[in-house]
What does this fold into?
Amino acid sequence: MALFQIAMSSSSARVRPGQIVAVALIAAFLVFFLLVPVATVIVTAFRDKATGAFTLVNFLDFARTDLFVRSFWNSVYVSSMSVVVASVFALPLAYYTTRFEFRGAAIVQTLGIIPLIMPPFAGAVAMQLLFGRNGSVNLLLDQYFGFKIPFMEGLNGVIFVQSIHYFPFILINLSAALRNIDRSMEESAQNLGSSGLRLFRRIVFPLAMPGYIAGASLVFIKVFDDLATPLLLNVNQMLAPQAYLRITSVGINDPMGYVISVVLIVASLAAMWLSVLAMRGKDYATTQRGGGGLAKREMRTGDAIPAYTMIAVILALVLAPHVGLFLMSVATIWSFSPLPDGFTLKHYATVIFDSGQYIWNTVLYASLAAGIDIVIGVAIAYLVLRTKVIGAKWLDYTAMAALAVPGVVLGIGFLRSYYGVILPGGQSLATYWVMIVIALAVRRLPYALRACMAALQQVSQSLEEAAENLGAGKRRTIQRVVVPLMTGGIVAGFVTSFATAAVELSATIMLVQSTADAPLAYGLYVYMQSPAGRGAGAALGMIAVLIVGICTYLSHHIAEKDRARKAGTA
Amino acid sequence: MRNKLLAAALVSTLALSASIAIAQTPTGKLVIVTSFSKEVTDPYKKAFEKANPGVTVEIQNRNTNAAVKYLEETKSNNITDLMWASAPDAFEALKQRELLEKYKPRVTGIPEKIGDFPINDPEGHFFGFAASGYGIMWNTRYVQANKLPEPKDWQDLAKAPYHNHVAIAAPSRSGTTHLTIETILQGEGWDQGWRINKEIGGNLAQVTERSFGVPDGVNSGQFGYGIVIDFFGFSAQGAGFPVKFVYPSVTTIVPANIGIVKNAPNAPLAKAFIEFLLSPPGQELLFEPTIRRLPVNPATYAKAPEGMPNPFNFKWTGKGGFKFDTDLSERRLGVVDALYDQTITFQLEPLKKATKAIHDAEAKLAAKPNPAAAALVKEARDLIAKMPVGEQEALSSDIVNAFKGGGKDKAPRQAQLEQQWAKFAADNYAKALAKAEEAAKALN
It folds into this structure.
């Protein structure tokens, strides 16, 4: 068997022209829309500010500056703790919804993804109103018990908000992985006498490891690079805010901001490399695709009560920002009180009559970007895991590095690289709306890519070999076997890319040239800059949440149906 | 007869072509880059489009720093007609980089100066359209619930009851806060100015990263007091929030500006917009409840709503009439911002701890006088106030070049200077804390 596999894999590893073309196309995309723009910006990190000559002295300055070193360790601490807290939120939700016959599993899964689409500004403002030093919770605590809890203060506040914001990465990837586990594995373990927690710890969880690691490394990197949350909580002694503050306030020619960007990129790459290392030498593929995931059990009443309670508590916590956002969107005045002074619907009217174009643009841009992402994601995953094409691994690393590029850097890079390119009609390429889509696609590609990777890792190669033995060509095998088996992961990737692209702001804000082309997040930013606009901004945020929520629910529905169909025909 | 007919035809043709010429004046699309919120820009967009049928106004919202950078990055193929924002230094910077076109508005009745500040750029690159002063806003519910006082001056914010209740935007992030800090420095002098800034710094609950973070936090009651530009206070009142606003004695009134971008694609329309903005109807729009800015045309104040002050009746320069020096402000902009960030923003926790210890010791001292302890407290206060660089040194070519680039080979780099300043501040705050605690112990 082993010999046979070796022989087979060497034959399937032969490099084909189609693969080389695919590599070249993806490489060109990454070079033009990631490497070149970023290089035009970070080259500053290696330049002497006075003379413009090449130098490494700026990196030495980084290591010698207490503030930067402190920021670095703060970022590491916050990212690691966020992974831990996010796992605490995600594990029970993923386990219960995939493991048991669970009423409302689709709703829990959808609601569990909603936090990812916490719109910038609005989300943090809403959190402040609920959990801030004089938010609803603390005002009530103070009134009845005479103390306050500093949920939102300092690094712990960042961990609190980030875990709520990003735990869906773990939830989505882990759920997809759990659903892909072969039931026969579990049954074998049960036949051998394993059950309960031991079964979960020794069999189920290790088998779902690719999904968990994919999610956890995303959370780590995302938190490490995230700008909006620390900035909005006014925590500035972390690496990403330091980079942003340097670039946007000290000046475009100041090297330190770009040095920090380079450090961010390197640290994120290191985290990814570690996660690859953790997975190395382990085979997680499952051959049979019998019942489609773990055996689902009826929950006993004794289990059901704690399970529902736990899920209710977690959901209440992770949905709090949206509850706050909703209250804000219907509030008249909300100031230093547990609840708003009065309620109104006029903010929704304002937004719908004034800003319809934002909503349409968002749906268009985010779905195009997510579409580009899954096509590239599937292609890279396949090239890396199934072929020996030279450079495939590098495509993976490069695409993932996009995660580490601050949005502002990418935005400035796009302007610098493509502003001079004039389209027929006199418009500059950098300001053409398609560039916003491409910037979003580049920024969200890592999410889709990780999801596709995890999905393909779980598909056994022997299934493709079987298809090829039966006479199917490479293309047909990919179309009819590989992609369908990956559907769950692809949908997960699409949803994550779409949902997060829909609320992206940092790169878009550099590229938006006219309100007619602006997406929703930009409109929200504009509204949120004035006292009278807060309610309208919140209303726009709620609309964003609804759009993404509906799209997520629909794609789950499609994925479920697809799974049911496959399970039926298998 | 025949000649008469001919003349009539000639006249009517002339009249017709003249009327065509008038109708032709402004058409097309006007692109404005602005840091102002939708509440400010929307009324102007609507009014201007209504007055000029066939014109569309395209508003692009960016914060002031990003807008300057954007105009710089896009100058090779500029598509922006107007830059419209508060901070005069940003316009000064644009002017120096030759990104602004000269123009002379035809509107009359606007004085040359407001307070000590020239309303328009003397060389005609940008024009003030509204005046703004800096001051303190507070949330009345917050202040009542915590039984706190109402402030009158900057120094009030440095007092013990205000500890942990005040918010400010980082001057490096907010052009308006930068001007506030610079106003205090110029009005009180370098040393005394920094002393006040740091004493207020020790009472801060937070340094926010956006200008709007401060009024937003005060409106929602996250902070009690905020150091803001006046219209944030007035427009929050206009929106119904329970807030008040006061101008301290040392403040300056500074115009918010508009300027035509170099190589503007639609310069005639840009000029028409400026004329509209400065005309009486344009100036009156500033009184809208969501805008609430002070017009630069004194005649407009006849129609001012309740509670809007008239800056032309004010004695703005309480402290013997100092002159706000925009040029000085522009020259040391980077240095002042970095000093603030390195000694206050990024040292906030140690600074607050030392300040709290001083307040505690002073409370004890008031109850039980003790010269030795009083001397220790004074030393602690001086340690906090101490700055790593003096006023002259801050303008020295070494430091200015470190921030601008293009200095000599052996000169210090910005990152090195910043590390020195941060360390200087951290060391002094630790010493100040020790002194204050020693004083408190002596008083037990």
